[in-house]
UniProtKB/TrEMBL annotation:
<dbReference type="InterPro" id="IPR007541">
    <property type="entry name" value="Uncharacterised_BSP"/>
</dbReference>
<protein>
    <submittedName>
        <fullName>Uncharacterized protein</fullName>
    </submittedName>
</protein>
<feature type="region of interest" description="Disordered">
    <location>
        <begin position="277"/>
        <end position="321"/>
    </location>
</feature>
<feature type="compositionally biased region" description="Low complexity">
    <location>
        <begin position="308"/>
        <end position="317"/>
    </location>
</feature>
<feature type="region of interest" description="Disordered">
    <location>
        <begin position="1"/>
        <end position="31"/>
    </location>
</feature>
<dbReference type="Pfam" id="PF04450">
    <property type="entry name" value="BSP"/>
</dbReference>
<feature type="compositionally biased region" description="Polar residues">
    <location>
        <begin position="19"/>
        <end position="30"/>
    </location>
</feature>
Amino acid sequence: MYMSQPPRPRTSSTIPPILQQTSRLDSSDNPEIMSCEEEENVVIVVQEKGVIFKNGWRVPLIRLRFNDVCDDGSRVILGSGLNLHDVLVDAVVGVLDALYTPDTAPDNVRSVTLIIRNMDGVAYTTGMDIDDDHKEIHFSTEYIAGVHERSKGKQDKQEILGVIRHEMVHCFQYNAFGGANGGLIEGIADWVRYKAGFRPPHWHRGEGDQWDNGYERTAYFLLWLEEQYGPETVPRINGWMKKRRYSDKLFIDLFNEKPEELFKRYKKWCEEHSEEEVCGADQDSPAGEKEDPSEPSSPKNEEENNEDNNSYVEVSNPSPEDWQVSEAKLVARDRLNKLAYDGTGSFKRFINSFEGLIEVLDPKMSEKERRLLLVTALQGNPLTWLDNIDPDDELEYPEIKTILEANTSVSYKS
Ligand SMILES: [Zn+2]
């Protein structure tokens, strides 16, 4: 599927039209200040020279795209009763609030586009090919239609809010220059989701056998760490990854203990404390509950208010490992689609990225498929050169790679 289309050339014509128009609001020399009551919190929205600040947080350009509004999943989202403007703005503010202070929040994210489309998996987040500071969240209509069917509509809101909050974390979190432990990255995303109150019914504390199993398994471990080391724990973990290459030394630096040892203590603590005891306390103070008036009642309240709650069975919910692999593969596929080599940069860097992505996508990929992907990624001089020396597509993948490597070091040395 990912080989069906050659990479698009990086020209201005591939920039979505809406991106080409950079002023989204009427600029005003004087900041326009609006405030409104949102439960007991006063929300301050400041518009300054076209940039929106909400409660001091800079909100980048947010865009929304439905690939097909008639798709079952699109109709679930459109019919959910959620105000998507509020959901998206609250997701940005909620993520920044959970991980940063206004002084430490990253300001590189220029736009976030939520793309609701038919695809496999649940969702993934990636940068656009023109600029990684423009983020894209891809959300599967097939997945949300499935949730709707299995839960008879009862989990729609919670899942939409939860998936968007999780993916929004990926737009703003640090990842040690892309080399962070994947389980930790996914754990932080679900930790933010949990704190916002968007916990699905199948999540349970104490599951997993390694600290970096990812998703909610690592999120519960992070919640425990937070209990032990204070509310700044996860922001500190995230902050550590801003300017460092990843290693488990992170945990020694911050907690003076290896993650495996911390995890052992966490598991022991889980055995000694029942989940009801802990979750009862959690329900009282999820950070996001107060900020989102469109949020549905918590799972606990739903149980109390809804006798039919037990009818929700997440029958085909993939295990966290499957989700993790799935999300990582979706991202790898997206990046491979966007990866191109036109001879102007370092071939070594290109081929390292290329093979790294294949390793994530499918380590057992045949050489025939690798060859096709490599040729598809070539543009300009390297492609012309390959056409000349191998007009009948006879060279194998390793040969093309070796010859290309030798040739580029002479002809395209950067
Ligand atoms: Zn994720």
